[in-house]
Amino acid sequence: MKHYTRFRAYQLPNKGSSFSLSVDNHFTLIEARYNETNREHILWELNLIKRTTIDVLHITSWDDDHCNFGELCNLLKDLSPSLIEYPSEVPTTENGRKSRNAILEYAKTYVFCKAVSITPYFVKNEPKEPLKGRNLFYNPLINGDKSNNNSVVKFFRVGSFQVLSLGDCEDSSIAQRLMKDPILKDEVDIMILAHHGADNGFTTPEFLKAIDPLVCVCASNYANEYDHPKPIIRSRCQSLNIPLFTTKRGDIIAQTIDPKHFKVSNYVSNNEAKETVTPPLENKTWYKSDV
């Protein structure tokens, strides 16, 4: 099937986020997390499309729950990304500094790899095309003094269903800007909750109504000691009839059923389907050339 799309949210042994998105045989790993809990499932996803390496490593933040230096080193060695997208913010932590240096050294050593810093200039000057077929960046527009708000926001817009990644953004002004964007208002199918579903004034009822995702996804480790997402965020999704899936039970997999529909399943122990959105969800958009 053309544009067969598969999104997976991986359960982790501790706090943090890990996702992947494959469209046909193109594979993107979102966040530099690669450990004993998610490694075999990332490799399983790659094997589905007959790949051993990844096309894109996309990192939203230098925080160690998004980019872990030790895991990053193993990831680079095992998965050999061709493109690395990383935050332009200058890291203030040892983990962040070592991670950034590792990426730059990797890109310098391996000529097949390109490392791209997602700067405010890059975001501001990227064309926002009205037609599908191009991923879009929405943040940062400035590099401020609050690290979370320098997170990279990316709209993955090339598959049969569309995924919005919000990183750790928490400033309401960023939310206000995003909720006015006509593309985001019309096209988001799956939204990864900002800052793990924190109640910080970002994910308001107004924001959820404006973006109107078909599904919300939240990364929480199996113990969920940080209570992700917060009960008020769960309540807001429920009141707006937006299905909410978390990785507390196990991995989440969204996959194309046919050119117009996809389904979402939550797994226990990553192999038994526990909960599936029924009926299948209808994609908001599709490639113009395929309609």
Q: Give helix and strand order, one letter per element, not per position.
A: EEEHEHEHEHEEEHHEHEHEEEEE
Q: Quick one: CATH class?
A: Alpha Beta
Separation, N- and C-terminal Cα atoms: 14 Å
Q: What are the low-pLDDT stretches, counting only 5+ consecutive residues below 50? A: none
Q: Write the CATH homologous superfamily.
A: Ribonuclease Z/Hydroxyacylglutathione hydrolase-like
Count of individual beta strands: 16
Q: What integer value in Å does the Rg equal?
A: 18 Å
Q: Report strand %.
A: 15-25%
Form type: globular
The average pLDDT is 91
Derived structural class = alpha/beta
Number of helices: 8
Instruction: Report the sheet with the most strands, covering strand number, pairing sense and barrel closure.
Output: 10 strands, mixed
| CATH fold-level name | Metallo-beta-lactamase, Chain A
Helix content: 25-40%
CATH architecture: 4-Layer Sandwich
- Overall structural domain count: 1
General description of the model:
This protein starts with a strand and ends in a 9-residue tail after the last strand. The strands form 2 sheets. Strands 1, 2, 3, 4, 5, 6, 13, 14, 15 and 16 form a 10-stranded mixed sheet that branches. It has one domain: Metallo-beta-lactamase, Chain A, CATH 3.60.15.10. The mean pLDDT is 91. With 291 residues, it is α/β, with parallel strands linked by helices. The longest helix is centred in the middle third of the chain and has 16 residues, at 94-109. The protein contains 8 helices and 16 strands.
